[in-house]
Amino acid sequence: MKIGILALQGAVSEHLTMLNQLDVDPVLVKNESDLTGLNGLIIPGGESTTIARLMHLNQLMEPIKLRAKQGLPMMGTCAGLIILAQHIHEQSDVHLGILNVTVSRNAFGRQRDSFEQLITVKGLEEAFPAVFIRAPLVEDIGEDVEVLATVDHQIVAVKQGQLIGLSFHPELTSDVRFHQLFVENCRSVNKNI
Fold this sequence. Notes:
Elements: E1 2-6, H1 12-19, E2 25-29, E3 40-43, H2 48-57, H3 61-69, E4 74-77, H4 79-84, E5 85-88, E6 99-104, E7 115-119, E8 128-132, E9 137-141, E10 146-151, E11 154-160, E12 163-166, H5 177-189
Parallel strand pairs: 1-2, 1-3, 3-4, 4-12, 5-6
Antiparallel strand pairs: 6-9, 7-8, 10-11, 11-12
Keywords: Glutamine amidotransferase, Hydrolase, Lyase, Pyridoxal phosphate
Organism: Seinonella peptonophila
GO cellular component, one term: cytosol
């Protein structure tokens, strides 16, 4: 199974480290040809405006939208969630606009307000050590969106079909379970693997 990591900016090497612990072949995605044959795609945390600009420069925005419409599983972490979102609070432009949520950028504060917290996640038996760094918050969800986790009654993880969006950085922990959950999602969508 081939899992891509959008490798334009952000926590690319950290996701690569996590995927190397699982039974998958990681692929660094830098251009459209790198999308060929993927069974899933991770859009990492970093700086969402920079990632989106580089996606446009590398002509990846439309090909990734097309792959999502064709059913390619995707997981966006932190800035990746913002890239996936259909609506961004107090911002008129969106990026991929494929995940039926409204997000608020930097909702948990500035860099100095970063924190780690154990959270209960639907699909994981034990609490997960979520790392929040200038994290976005899911303010609103569509009817077809499932909440996977909250912090203080605020939504920080969602799933819509084959799409997963996280406010936090699972790749900055030593806990591989969220990546395993994503790989299992990819396997269920790609049943012939």
